[in-house]
Amino acid sequence: MKIVMLMGSPRPTGNTATVLEMVEESLAAGHEIKRYDVAQLNIIGCRGCYACADSPNEPGCVQRDDATGILDEILGADAIVYATPLYMWGVASDLRALMERHFCLVKTYGSPAKKSLVQGKRIAMLVTAAGPAENNADAIQTVFDRFASYCECEVAGKFVLPGCSVTEGPGEDARTLAGRLAEALTVESSIH
Ligand SMILES: Cc1cc2nc3c(=O)[nH]c(=O)nc-3n(C[C@H](O)[C@H](O)[C@H](O)COP(=O)(O)O)c2cc1C
Which of 22, 35, 87 to mutate to test the pocket of ligand 1 (most atoms within 8 A of CB)? Predict the structure, then answer.
């Protein structure tokens, strides 16, 4: 499979990056993996100009920044992992900006002619959080489900790792969770 990993923490060697590395180590050999440290790139949010609506078969975003190349990679991928620290109960802002830019991948939203250029791709979310999953990382999972529905992608799973402190590193269950994510992403029967 061709897998795109989007690492959304501004800390390049922090908890999210560490767990994402574990996911990569857990994946069987033979997958083509591309990873982007989104916060190290130049990506701004959607400007709402709707120019992309004039391009029915391609992204057509008129903004020229690092999102352009990543969106092209996503179009050619089988699976995408959206990895983020939990920031204020949501997705960290750099990855959030890139997720907004997926707007150009879905055409004529709200009409029967709606078409997603990423339909059927498998996506997973990885969240590292200092606090618990309950009453903390709930809204982010709802948003991810809505995002998947909008993009017409298949959710391979949403994986929340609680207890990730900046001083102590990722929680002790990190490797197990990373293995589960890798399996869900690549095993056909694991779709739920
Ligand atoms: C701006 C900011 C907001 C945060 N908001 C939350 C939060 O809402 N819930 C939570 O459990 N942890 C929160 N945290 C803690 C981080 O999500 C957690 O430590 C995470 O593992 C950091 O990931 P990183 O090392 O990859 O940057 C926040 C941290 C920062 C810096």
Answer: 87
Strand ranges for 10-121 from DSSP E: 32-37, 79-87, 90-91, 106-107, 115-116
**What percentage of the chain reaches a pLDDT higher than 90?**
93
What domains are defined for the chain? 2-190 (3.40.50.360)
Ligand 1 site, residue 174, Cβ cutoff 6 A: no
Using DSSP's 3-state secondary structure scheme, residue 100 falls into helix
190 has a pLDDT exceeding 50: no
pLDDT in tens, 110-151: 899 999 999 999 999 999 999 999 999 999 999 999 999 999
**Which of 86, 126, 143, 167 maximizes ligand 1 atoms within 8 Å of its Cβ, making it the mutation to test the pocket?**
86
